[in-house]
Structure formats: C-alpha cells, structure tokens
C-alpha cells in the first residue's frame, strides 16, 4: 500500500470546486482547505506507478496551480503475503503427487 500526502495550491475562490474535482479520483481524500487556497490531500494506491499517475493527474486538474508530493509511505499488504500462496501451491502439489502414487 502506498500512501502519499500532497499539498495542492489553488486560487482561494476556486478551492471548493478543485476539492470536488479531486474527490472524483479513486483513493483521494481531501483533509483541509486553507483560506489561501492550499488543500491538504492524501492519495492511497496499491501500485507505485498508479500513485505517481494520480499525483500527476492532480496537477492537471482544472483550477490547480501546483501540486507537491510532501510525504510518501509504502508498506507490504499483509493479506498478499507470499507464504499463503506458497502453501496453497504446495498443497496442490501434494494432492497431485498423491494421485501419481495411487496410479502406480
């Protein structure tokens, strides 16, 4: 899981419209809007490339003056641990070898 903090700059009079456009992105949350048009956003994505694409897309949102990545955190998804998959594959291999033994 990738979690990034992004500081988005917009003109104060357009910040609410920018917020609504940002919320249309999957994995994007808007946490605060300052009176000067600064918007605090987090982005959550499973893939690093998707994360980078989303941050780039934020920069292209109508009304955004700039967007800066100010924080990034990555950690493995515990539900995708390889040992679970390995165990499943080993169990299937054991079943197959048992069939071979029975066929002899």
**Beta content:** 25-35%
- N-to-C CA distance: 48 Å
Please provide the ordered H/E string of secondary-structure elements.
Answer: EHEEHEH
Radius of gyration, taken over Cα atoms and rounded to an integer in Å: 22 Å
Mean pLDDT: 82
Q: Which strand order do you get reading across the main beta sheet?
A: 2-3-1-4
- Looking at the structure, the CATH topology is Alpha-Beta Plaits
Number of helices: 3
- Overall number of domains: 1
Question: Would you report the number of β strands?
Answer: 4
Principal-axis shape? elongated
Helix content: 40-55%
CATH architecture: 2-Layer Sandwich
Q: In CATH, what is the class?
A: Alpha Beta
Question: What is the H level of CATH, i.e. the homologous superfamily?
Answer: Lrp/AsnC effector binding domain/regulation of amino acid metabolism (RAM) domain
Computed structural class: alpha+beta
Residue ranges: pLDDT <50 for 5 or more in a row? 82-104
């Amino acid at each position: 899981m990738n979690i990034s903090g992004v500081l988005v700059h917009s003109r104060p009079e357009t910040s609410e419209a920018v917020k609504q456009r940002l919320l249309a992105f999957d994995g994007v949350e808007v946490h605060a809007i300052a009176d000067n048009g600064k918007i605090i956003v987090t982005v959550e994505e499973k893939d690093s490339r998707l994360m980078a694409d989303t941050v780039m897309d934020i920069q292209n949102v109508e009304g955004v003056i700039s967007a800066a990545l100010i924080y990034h955190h990555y950690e493995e998804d515990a539900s995708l641990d390889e040992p679970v998959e390995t165990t499943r594959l080993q169990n299937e291999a054991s079943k197959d070898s048992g069939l071979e033994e029975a066929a002899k």
